[in-house]
Specification:
Length: about 450
């Protein structure tokens, strides 16, 4: 994030100041060169001789500057990142006595940033001063020539040409300084364009959708993350009838969340097929497909906005206030919302820090209720709650689950007993399926998991 802000500033500076300076100074320089030619073309030719040398210096410093500038972008990002981590995680840092460690990390980051910035300053000064030095040569030669009577230089011409040469120094110095800014700008622009050119989500789908019935089927689905280098889901076959509730249980890391994240096409599957109402999900337009899902997960994302706007997130601004209230009511959230200073219009702080876990969860449920999507996905929606809060939420969830296709991942197995179907996922494979009673009698993985939890 900080890198984007830094880079945009660099480009803006390069474009505004630098271009103006270049225009102004180069027209001055051209004017002066014309004057010099007019006074004495022979002496002016001296400049032509040193021109390639100057060009070489400019090129050297430009290339170096661009490389150094990219390094600085990186280190500015590092400094912000380290500082941000130390500030956001201040509780952990203090509790575990990590102050010294964090401080050292920060010092290291700022030191490396300092070194990189210094290299830029050095390159800049070396470049500018060598150009000035090169410039001094023709001026010296001119002075020498003027003392030689054989050259027939009049006092007037001498004054004019030396004055012009000295005046030329300023624009050249300014231009070479501005070149620094431009190189920084180019490096920043490269980084911005790289980010802007990141591929956006593939959306080849064309079929529009009003409201699906909610029949879901996974056929021989295999999946691995780009970075995981191993199969996360292996040949998954699963059929969910519209209106039914299917629970997915299993050890953590078994691929449960991954499986459900494939439905709204957050990731692309490697092989197999996922269909909704018998149609491959890739055929639907992405935005229309995603309208069919409501999601409540363990970590609720709330925005720094009012309670009402958080509940109505993503819906048209015109959404009925009455409906927001109904959703809050059904989510068992009215009680605590009415205790907030401004009710539904209370701002919840950055990331909703003023609310407890259970309260945030109920806002997420109200959000899902208001969206009224045909397919509901609950990913450990009650895992972070205490028993009292869970009872509240359980009731809210039951309202939410009515007349929808529901896919539920639950850590606490007591919450999935009533599901129409339970599947047990282990290391990316479905190892058992059936109803609660069937699986208990079966005495397999599910029964073992259940007994282990029952003992707790
Ligand atoms: N974005 C990701 N990139 C790479 N690997 C991931 C990603 N998300 C999860 N994984 C890996 O996929 C496996 C399954 O994770 P997950 O679906 O979250 O399991 P569960 O929800 O059953 O606990 C884990 O081994 C996890 O490390
Ligand atoms: Mg998970």
């Amino acid at each position: 994030m900080s890198t984007i802000v830094y880079n945009v500033e660099q480009v803006a500076q390069a474009c505004s100041d630098a271009l103006l300076t270049i225009l102004r100074e180069s027209s001055t320089a051209i004017g002066l060169i014309i004057v010099m030619f007019w006074v004495s073309w022979k002496l002016t030719l001296l400049f032509i001789v040193i021109a390639p040398l100057i060009a070489w210096v400019v090129k050297w410093s430009s290339v170096r500057m661009r490389r150094l500038s990219a390094n600085v972008q990186q280190s500015v990002g590092d400094v912000t990142h380290v500082a941000g981590e130390g500030i956001d995680g201040y509780r952990v840092v203090r509790l575990y006595g990590g102050q010294k460690y964090e401080m050292e990390k920060f010092n290291l980051a700022t030191k490396s940033n300092l070194q990189r910035e210094l290299k830029i300053v050095v390159t800049n000064s070396v470049g500018t001063s060598s150009i000035q030095l090169l410039f001094a040569i023709p001026i010296a030669v001119t002075l020498l020539a003027a003392t030689n009577p054989a050259m027939h230089i009049s006092a007037g011409s001498f004054t004019a040409i030396v004055a012009a040469m000295i005046s030329l120094l300023r624009p050249v110095r300014r231009i070479s300084m501005v070149n620094t800014e431009i190189q920084k700008g180019v490096a920043a622009a490269e980084s911005i364009f790289k980010m802007a050119d990141e591929p956006i989500e593939k959306d080849m789908g064309t079929r529009r959708l009003s409201r699906v019935k909610g029949d879901i089927e996974f056929r021989n689905v295999c999946f691995e993350y780009d970075s995981s280098k191993r199969a996360i889901l292996k040949h998954i076959n699963l059929k969910v009838e519209a209106g039914k509730t299917v629970a997915i249980v299993g050890k953590s890391g078994g691929g449960k969340s991954t499986l459900l994240n494939l439905l709204p096409r957050f990731y692309e599957i490697n092989s197999g097929e996922i269909t909704i109402d018998g149609v491959n999900i890739n055929v639907y337009q992405l935005a229309e497909l995603r309208k069919q899902f409501a999601f409540v997960s363990q970590d609720t994302i709330l925005f720094d906005d009012t309670v009402a706007n958080n509940i109505a997130y993503g819906l048209p601004v015109s959404v009925d206030r009455e409906k927001i209230m109904q959703a809050a009511e059904a989510a068992h959230a009215t009680e605590f919302i009415s205790q907030l200073p401004e009710g539904l219009d209370s701002k919840i702080g950055e990331d909703g820090v003023l609310l407890s876990g259970g309260q945030r969860q109920r806002i997420a449920i109200a959000r899902a209720l208001l969206k009224d999507a045909p397919i509901l996905i609950l990913d450990e929606a009650t895992a972070s709650l205490d028993v009292h809060a869970e009872r509240h939420i359980q009731a809210a969830l039951e309202d939410l689950m009515k007349d929808r296709t529901v896919l539920i991942i639950a850590h606490r197995l007591s919450t999935v007993e009533n599901a129409d179907h339970i599947i047990v996922l282990d290391e990316g494979e479905i190892v058992e399926t059936g109803t609660h009673h069937f699986l208990l009698k079966n005495e397999g993985v599910y029964a073992a998991l259940y007994k282990a939890q029952f003992k707790e």
